[in-house]
Structure formats: C-alpha cells, structure tokens
UniProtKB/TrEMBL annotation:
GO terms for molecular function: methyltransferase activity. Keywords: Methyltransferase, S-adenosyl-L-methionine, Transferase. It holds the Pfam family tRNA_U5-meth_tr. Residues 1-64 form the TRAM domain. This is 23S rRNA (Uracil(1939)-C(5))-methyltransferase RlmD. The active site is at residue 428. NCBIfam families: rumA (TIGR00479). One of its GO terms (biological process) is methylation. It comes from the Bacteria. InterPro entries: MeTrfase_TrmA_AS, MeTrfase_TrmA_CS, NA-bd_OB-fold, SAM-dependent_MTases_sf, TRAM_dom, U5_MeTrfase_fam. The keyword Transferase applies. Its EC number is 2.1.1.190. Belongs to the class I-like SAM-binding methyltransferase superfamily. RNA M5U methyltransferase family.
Length: 470
C-alpha cells in the first residue's frame, strides 16, 4: 500500500471480486473495507487509486492492470469509460446475464425472504447493441474534456457538445460521435444536427447562465421504419429554429414526425410543455404481433421493442389465460400488455396514472379493433378501491407492472383483499418487487420466476414472477 496525497491511497494487486450496484465493480481493501471501482471486471487484478474515502468504503479507479479477467472483452464503443451509459460493455454478454440473474435471485432471497421455485433461465436480448428505440441527447456549450485534451496545451476552438451528461456532472456533456444503442439513422441525424448548428452559429445551451438556442434532441425509431425527431429549444427564435428544422427535413426525408418544444423552464423535461408538430404526424407507429401502437412525444413505450415482445409473451404465458378470464392490467401505460393479452381473455381492464397514456391506450385499442379492453385513469392507490372492483368485477388474473418504486402498500393490501387466482408481477426493480412479494407471501406462493434482459451492456434487469393463491 502506498500513499500519494493525503486522502489518495494506492492499493496494489487488488482482485476485483464482484459486480456491484449501479454497474460499478467491488473489491476489498487490505483494511477490510469495500472499494468501488468503475470500468473493471470481476477477476481483474489491479492497482487502485482511491479518490473518495468514507467510513465504510472507498471509491477508486484502476491505475494499473496486473491480470485481466477471463470475462473481460474489448468495449466496442469509443466513448466507453467517459460515458456513463453502457458500463458493462467490457464484460462478455454471458457474464452480464450471470450477474443480472444473480441480482434478482439475491434480492428475492435476501429482501423477500420467501420460498422460491427454480428460476427459469434468464432471457437474453437477441440484439446486444442497437436495441433502443428512444434516445435523448443534450446540447451544451461546455463540452467534457478528456484528461489528454486538458494536459495537451492545444487551444480548444469549439467547446460545444451534443451528447450525454457525464455522471454526477450536471453541466458537462460528453460529445457523442457514435453511439451503438439506436439503429441508424440515429447517429447520422445527431451528428448532422451538431454540424449544421456549429456551421450556422446556432448557440448551444449554456447550462450555468440558462441561455442559448438548442437544448435537447430526442430521437424515436420504430420497427415499422418510422422516425420521430423532437428538438427542444430554449430561445424562441423562429428564424433560426426553422433554418435547422427545414435543413433536417430536406436532409432526412425518412423522418415521419418532426416536432419541437420551446422550453424556458429551469429543467428540460418536456412532460409539462406544449409540443408543436412541424412536419409529418405527431406520432409514430410501432407494430407487435399484428397490433399497432401509436407513440407520441410524451408516451412511455418499452425501450427495447424486440425484447418487449418477449417480455409480453412470458407475461401472457404466466397469466395462463383460457379465453374467459377477467384480467386487470395495473400500471398499463399505453395499454400495451392489456391489448397483447386481450385475445386470450374475456375482458381486460387497464389502469394508469397518466391521462395522455390512457388516451393513447383507447386510441390504440380502437385502431386494433379490440373491443374487450377498457381503460381508466388515476393514481393506483386511490382508484383501485372497493367501488372500482364492484363496478368492473372481481378479476381472475391481475397483471401488474409498476414503476421502479414498486407498488404502494395499499395496492398490495387491495390485491390480498381481492384475492385473484393468479398475479403476474412484472418488475424493473427486483428489490422493490421482493419487498412486495414478502407482503403477499402469506396469501400467495411464487410458482414461476423468469428474469428478462431488456438493457444489454447495463446492470438493469427486468423480472417476471407468477404468484398463485395458497
Ligand atoms: C413500468 S411502466 C409499465 C407500462 C406498461 N405496462 C408497458 O409495458 O408499457 C409503469 C407505468 O406505471 C405508471 N404509474 C406510475 N405511478 C403510478 C401510480 N401511482 N398509479 C398509476 N400508474 C402509475 C407510469 O405512468 C407507467 O406508465
């Protein structure tokens, strides 16, 4: 162990032991404390320089590799290491799935403390790159510089960037020239927007002063070939805005939905903003098993469309429908699961908090000629009450797909009260899922579990559980 500056310690020959939370790996320091190290793979043996010391742990970075893990591969992305996006790109996909599966198992065991059946094998994503249908990039006049750039005394001519936030640096944007997450023309459109803006002196957002023209760029693609581009502006400058939008339209005639927002709020979320359609339609269409779903600028749609299809097939299979059941689809979003299972059910009731999503759900059901689905808006813990059940009937099967926080305890209590034969619980956070399963344990037995990977190269994992009445 050597010492550099006061708090910077160098630990030598440290074996990386595990893949930890948020995609950062874990090792043990000679004093027994945990060290969190990014950009290393379990099995690597490294020297670590710490940059943060806490009571229970250190945070550090690998400064020298003595041995490379057998699970290590060369990242495909030129931005790996600076970009916070795909932290596991340096690990084989097989090993990524191993850690995802283990995280689900550990959460259900340690937090849920429930009896579990053997897991069905985690379902990997066929596409390990270019699987995302939605990307959001930020403009900034404060580009993140690499250490080499800072060290070299070269003058920086242009500090504009269009890309991703550097983790924990709210005002610094990593300029992205090639991202392997969304199919083309995603890269071409983003790079064209940047080049055109630079060539025409369009001002990139200044995050400290809150000024400039260009704020964010959102790109949505669909398996139907339709493309949505939404540019968020800060300044309300019609001439410059149309200069850019007209250029994009001419350069990429394949864009089917060109939209914009002028947002002068402190934050850049568009959910409370008016979206203006500039050219084309204000939505794009996605297709799944013959069903069409319209996606507008504000809609939630599962980000990996191909794998969403697999997730929904597993959900439908777990639901064990015969054609007669009354099914509730809680947290239905735009009603995708509800419509996906509708032909195997008697009737489906979808419930969701976002009114626009429910409008989409109704529109989509009409487009798909589905007549046995009904959709209702409201906060689940308020809407999903005894009067609602009395009005719509006691469900045989409940499918629930809550956000990361899991279900409100009143919703869990209502599930126990209604006592459907089966509950299919789809979750993007197995820790909160485990908490909810523990609450249900006295009344429901977990009979099937299947993790599904929607996000290769990241530590995120989805999990589907079937609960059957005891
Ligand atoms: C993980 S998404 C599931 C969407 C949908 N099942 C799908 O596959 O597209 C969770 C959904 O829950 C909704 N939601 C979040 N909190 C809610 C609440 N308290 N009450 C009702 N819906 C809520 C969100 O708006 C979102 O659409």
């Amino acid at each position: 162990m050597g010492r550099k500056r006061r708090e910077e310690i160098i630990f030598e020959n440290i074996e990386v032991l595990d893949a930890g939370a948020r995609g950062v790996s874990v090792a043990k320091a000679p004093d027994g404390k945990v060290i969190f190290i990014p950009n290393v793979v379990p099995g690597d043996v490294v020297d670590v320089q710490t940059f943060k010391k806490r009571k229970a742990y250190y945070e550090g970075k690998a400064t020298k590799f003595h041995e490379y893990s057998e699970h290590r591969i060369t990242p495909v992305c030129q931005h790996f290491g600076s970009c916070g996006g795909c932290k596991w790109q340096n690990m084989t996909y097989e090993r990524q799935l191993f850690y995802k599966n283990r995280e689900v198992y550990n959460n259900l065991k340690r937090i849920g403390k429930i009896e579990l059946p053997d897991f069905e094998p985690i379902l990997g994503s066929e596409k390990q790159f270019f699987y995302r249908n939605k990307m959001e990039f930020s403009f900034s006049n404060s580009r993140w510089m690499t250490e080499e750039e800072i060290q070299s005394d070269k003058e920086i001519e242009n500090s504009n960037a269009l890309g991703f936030h550097i983790p924990r640096m709210w005002d610094k944007i990593l300029d992205i020239t090639h991202c392997s997450l969304q199919e083309d023309p995603s890269n071409a459109i983003r790079n064209e927007v940047r080049d055109f803006a630079n060539a025409n002196g369009l001002a990139f957002f200044n995050p400290r002063e809150h000024s400039g023209l260009l704020r964010t760029l959102m790109l949505r693609t669909a398996s139907t070939g339709e493309i949505m581009v939404l540019i968020q502006f800060y300044d309300d400058d019609k001439e410059k805005r149309e200069l850019l939008l007209n250029h994009l339209q001419a350069k990429f005639p394949e864009i089917t939905s060109l939209q914009y927002v002028v947002n002068q709020k402190a934050n850049d979320t568009i959910y409370d903003q008016d979206v203006t359609l500039y050219k084309g339609r204000d939505y794009i269409l996605e297709e799944m098993e013959g069903l069409h779903f319209s996606i507008n600028a504000k809609s939630f749609y599962q980000t990996n469309s191909a794998q969403a299809y697999e997730l929904y097939k597993i959900t439908r299979d777990f639901a064990g429908l015969t054609g007669n059941e009354l099914v509730y689809d809680l947290y239905t979003g735009t009603g995708t699961i509800a419509q996906f299972v509708a032909k195997k059910a008697g009737k489906v009731i979808g419930v969701e908090a976002v009114p626009e999503a429910i409008e989409d759900a109704k529109e989509n059901a009409k487009r798909n000629n589905i007549t046995n689905c009904e959709f209702f808006v409201g906060d689940m813990k308020v809407v999903f009450n005894d009067a609602f059940i009395a009005a719509h009937g006691k469900p045989d099967v409940i499918i629930t797909d809550p956000p990361r926080d899991g279900m409100h305890k009143d919703v869990v209590a209502q599930l126990i009260n209604i006592a459907p034969k089966r509950i299919v619980y789809v979750s993007c956070n197995s820790a909160t899922q485990a908490r909810d399963l523990a609450l249900l344990d006295e009344h429901y037995k977990v009979t099937r579990v299947r993790p599904v990977d929607m996000f290769p190269q990241t530590h995120h994992v989805e999990n589907v559980v079937l609960l059957e009445k005891r």
